[in-house]
Design a protein that fits this description.
The protein is mostly helical and 227 residues long. The chain is globular, with a radius of gyration of 20 Å. 73% of the residues lie in helices and 4% in strands. A hairpin with a 2-residue loop joins strand 1 and strand 2. It has one domain. Helix 2 crosses helix 7 and helix 4 runs parallel beside helix 7. The longest helix is centred in the C-terminal third of the chain and has 40 residues. It contains 7 helices and 2 strands; from the N terminus they run E-E-H-H-H-H-H-H-H. The N and C termini lie far apart (47 Å).
């Protein structure tokens, strides 16, 4: 069960550790992005060089599922998803982060991953309508026409299940990993924590890749013109 970890209240509004940690990460990412792109040089410094390498890797990653044209057009959206998720995941490695420790991991909170799922839902359909037009995009849910009575509700239901599965998968994996790690820390305080931290480096990256890869596939299907 998800912990609320309420830190303080502003009138009737309760501010949880999830909200604080999420906005702290957003602030840090904003500052780092500003510093990395403030004065671009032909011979980049360490921060600019790191940013350029990250952009190149992400462009190559999304080009495989979106295609070059759609990747260039919508890259900022998918890069934002990926960077926020992966940084949120890795923040769990910071001492003091975690539901049990006090400062909640953003992506281990269902409210945060549900919000990402809602944004993913609108991203998919807004891009689909923009690329194909409202009429053609709406008509794609009735294919094949011979089975329209059966396929229309199934196709519509699928569009709501997709973002729900993205949100629940990310939440379940990150929350479960956090709880398992905490329990192992209690049982095996020496050795195992180091192994779990090393595995978390791969696990956190993998979860960000899965979320954004699936979203890019959904968007590619929505934007693709039918022959």
């Amino acid at each position: 069960m998800e912990h609320t970890n309420v830190l303080f209240s502003i009138g009737p509004l309760q501010v949880t550790s999830t909200v604080v940690s999420m906005w702290a990460l957003i602030l840090i990412l904003t500052v780092v992005s500003f510093l990395a792109t403030r004065r671009l040089k032909d011979v980049p410094g360490p921060l600019q060089n790191l940013a350029e390498m990250a952009v190149e890797k992400l462009q190559s990653f999304f080009a495989d599922s979106l295609g070059q044209a759609h990747m260039r057009k919508y890259f900022p959206i998918f890069a934002t998803f990926f960077i926020f998720i992966v940084v949120s995941n890795y923040s769990g490695l910071i001492p003091g982060m975690g539901h049990i420790k006090g400062m909640a991991l953003p992506t281990a909170s269902l409210s945060v991953t549900a919000g990402l799922g809602v944004i993913a839902f609108f991203t998919t359909h807004v891009i689909g309508i923009r690329e194909r037009g409202l009429k053609k995009y709406a008509a794609s849910f009735t294919k094949p026409l011979i089975l329209v009575v059966l396929m229309l509700p199934l196709n519509l239901l699928e569009q709501f299940i997709r973002p729900m599965s993205l949100a629940l998968r990310l939440y379940g994996n990150m929350y479960g990993e956090e709880m398992v790690t905490e329990k192992l820390y209690e049982i095996f305080p020496i050795g195992v924590p180091l192994i779990m931290n090393v595995l978390s480096l791969l696990f956190c990256m993998l979860q960000a890749m899965v979320f954004t890869m699936l979203l890019s596939i959904y968007v590619s299907e929505a934007a693709e013109e039918e022959e």
